[in-house]
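User: Can you help me understand a structure? I only have the sequence.
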Amino acid sequence: MRMREVDRHHSDAILGAMRQVALAGGHAITYADTASILAAGRYLLRRPGLGDIDTLPAVAPADLVAALKGEGALAREAVKYLAIMALVDGALDHAKLARVLEYARALDVEEDYLTELVEAASGHLAWVMADMTRKNFDSVISKSSKGLDPAAWITPYGGANADPALVARYEALGKLPANSFGKALWDFDKNNGYAFPGDPQALNALFGTPHDSTHVISGYDTSLRGEILVSTFTAAMHPINPMAGHILPVIFNGHLGVKFNDVATPARGGFDSDEFWHAWARGRDMTVDLFAPGWNAWDWIERDLDELRHDWNVTPPGRPR
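Assistant: Let's start by predicting it. Here is the structure, written out as tokens:
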């Protein structure tokens, strides 16, 4: 989401509210809390000089409403940041979530991802995972997936549907110059042991190729950390269900240890509380959406990878800590 420059009055209010969500947990501010607030300030809210979150104002819901009056888009964006603050420590903290909902109600923000968080806190994880799966599916195909089976769609090349010619087309990317986008995509799949589309074991090209291309363009790997970051990058680049369909599913799966689907392994501790916000800013600043219906990887495979990153305004990622 591209917005106009955020001034200090607005950024102080949002960051101060983020700190209040962290404090709602009833314990001392954690490293993840501090790092997240500072990183959100640095990368998204243009506050690179902020060094001490204790200098931020204690912003109540009514204060945030007053500060963001007339800034509907920024208010909706702010609630996303507040929601993430309920999760950064690797648990769905009920007190923090209650505080997030106070801000959301005060700002008159109602979103599907907030419903997912409420239902998760109520123990309805099966419903939450199903809803996230559907929202992710809708986002990937950029339209309603009603009537489609996500499990059947994601692995379509079994049995008589195998497509050796398509596999060969992807395999041929390995012959391209080493600096090309196509060769980088081939290397990525080969190095990670991923079958090419058309193979019975492969994921649907309509998902696998844009997703792997986003890994290549962003520079994020396939670790728990990398999958959270590439999905966050995707969410900021692709405007359909960014929170409910991309960011929350990978945080639940890779940080809270909740299984998302049959192709994702649940685990804990994948959240990088600095680079997460950087990935958000990097994806937001992209000039091309790799998940848009009109984007086709084959239009770009011979292009120099570094030139594409420059043309698409992709800045370098941070290093793992």
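Now, to help you interpret it: The mean pLDDT is 94. The chain is about 55% helix and 0% strand. Let me know which part you'd like to focus on.
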